Amino acid sequence: MGEQPIYSTRAHVFQIDPNTKKNWMPTSKHAVTVSYFYDSTRNVYRIISLDGSKAIINSTITPNMTFTKTSHKFGQWADSRANTVYGLGFSSEHHLAKFADKFAEYKEAARMAKEKSLEKMDLASSPSQESPADIHSPLTPPVTADLCRINGTGDDVTLSDVSPNSMLQSDLSPTTPTLAHSPTTNKHWEAELATLKSNNAKLTAALLESTANVKQWKQQLAAYQEEAERLHKRVSELESQSSQTNVIKSQKTELNQTIEELECTLKAKEEEMVRLKEEVENAKQLQTQKDELTKKLEDTDLRNKELEEQLADLEQRLEASQVDQENLRKNLKTLLEILDGKIFELTELRDNLAKLIEDS
């Protein structure tokens, strides 16, 4: 699966001042994402943080690292490979404690992974402890520790220290007295001497070949070391690119989630706007109805005022009519009284005229 983020948090990132080794220098203007990454192919844990496209933390966790809490919200650790000290400022003590727990957990995992790797290396190297110089022909004596030093395992003996003459003298020293005391066995010893010379020549050739092989192996070792250094740099570059890619993917995932949340929020806001528009339309309709009713009410009030005025006028006219009727009644009564008096007078006059007529 490669390198994947396994835990992320947000914090302000600092680095120790390389000049004073005391003051902290902020490497980010604001809180950034700090992530633990795990490479399953190499059993490696790393702490990575990006500020934009710049990697401000790229620290591989090793068993000898220690994360120290220096306050309730601040912690630090030293990275000998990067030759610096990183500091993180968290928003709460809980986030600091969580990060410290993860650091201890992944540090222990890195220690166990390192032990397993060493065990595998020991098992792999145990069958091949014999050096190539230990494989010899039946005519070649076993290679001693001095030969092992010559073919790459030490630097104490050079080729001139083990010359063919010295080897020959060491081989002939135990046989010289025997030659002196047994002249009849010269042929036998001459054959033995020839065999020893042959063996000595083979040994010298083997030594020369071993020396050439040592030089060749040293050249190959130097070439392998250069290649390993180049590959190490390439791996570091690829790890940095991979970490940046993984962090960018993580940030992209976070941005996608944020975009989805914003889209959901936007959709909810749009629905809310539609609902509010409907309510506004309803409110406008209600306002229109209210205006119409208000106008009708005003018209009704005006009509009522007119009717009240008319009623008041009618009441006044009625009162006036009543007064006129009362006056008319009084006048009629007066006229009736006058008329009764006149009728009475006429009656008396009639009676008087009737008496006069009768008397006459």
Protein architecture, described:
This protein is α+β, with helices and mostly antiparallel strands. It has a domain at 5-117: Pleckstrin-homology domain (PH domain)/Phosphotyrosine-binding domain (PTB) (PH-domain like), CATH 2.30.29.30. The protein is 64% helix and 15% strand. The chain contains 5 helices and 8 strands, in the order E-E-E-E-E-E-E-E-H-H-H-H-H. Strands 1, 2, 3, 4, 5, 6, 7 and 8 form an 8-stranded antiparallel β-sheet that branches. It is rod-shaped and about 250 Å long.
Rg calculated over all Cα atoms: 63 Å
Element string (H = helix, E = strand): EEEEEEEEHHHHH
CATH class of the domain at 5-117: Mainly Beta
- Which consecutive residue ranges, at least 5 long each, have pLDDT under 50? 127-181
Assign the CATH architecture of the domain at 5-117.
Answer: Roll
The overall pLDDT average reads 78
Q: Please give the alpha-carbon distance between the first and last residues.
A: 168 Å
Could you say what the CATH topology of the domain at 5-117 is called?
PH-domain like
The named CATH superfamily of the domain at 5-117: Pleckstrin-homology domain (PH domain)/Phosphotyrosine-binding domain (PTB)
Gross morphology: rod-shaped
Tally of strands? 8
How big a fraction of the residues is strand?
A: 15-25%
* Tally of helical runs: 5
Q: Characterize the biggest β-sheet.
A: 8 strands, antiparallel
Structural class: alpha+beta
Q: Helix coverage percent of residues? A: 55-70%
